[in-house]
Design brief:
This protein has two domains: 34 residues; 36 residues. The chain contains three helices and no strands. By secondary structure, it is an all-alpha fold. It comes from Imtechella halotolerans K1. This is Transposase is204/is1001/is1096/is1165 family protein.
């Protein structure tokens, strides 16, 4: 009986995830839009940040970021 309970818990987790995110899921099928561009931009920021091993001057970092990616 324990294996069945585990299966139901996994199903409940998936059902809850779909319930919470159903608008985003449906938006993909309606408009074919994703957040891939935002994820790509975040990856570029992380790569830029790692290139300098941390940021000490936030103002200069944001300035450089806008010059490179804006």
């Amino acid at each position: 009986m324990r294996g069945i309970e585990v299966g139901f818990r996994a199903f409940n987790t998936i059902a809850n995830t779909i319930t919470v995110n159903y608008r985003s899921i449906l938006n993909y099928f309606i408009n074919r839009s994703t957040n891939a561009s935002a994820e790509s931009f975040n990856a570029k920021i992380k790569a830029f940040r790692s290139q300098f091993r941390g940021v000490r001057n936030i103002e200069f970092f944001l300035y450089r970021l806008t010059k490179l990616f804006a």
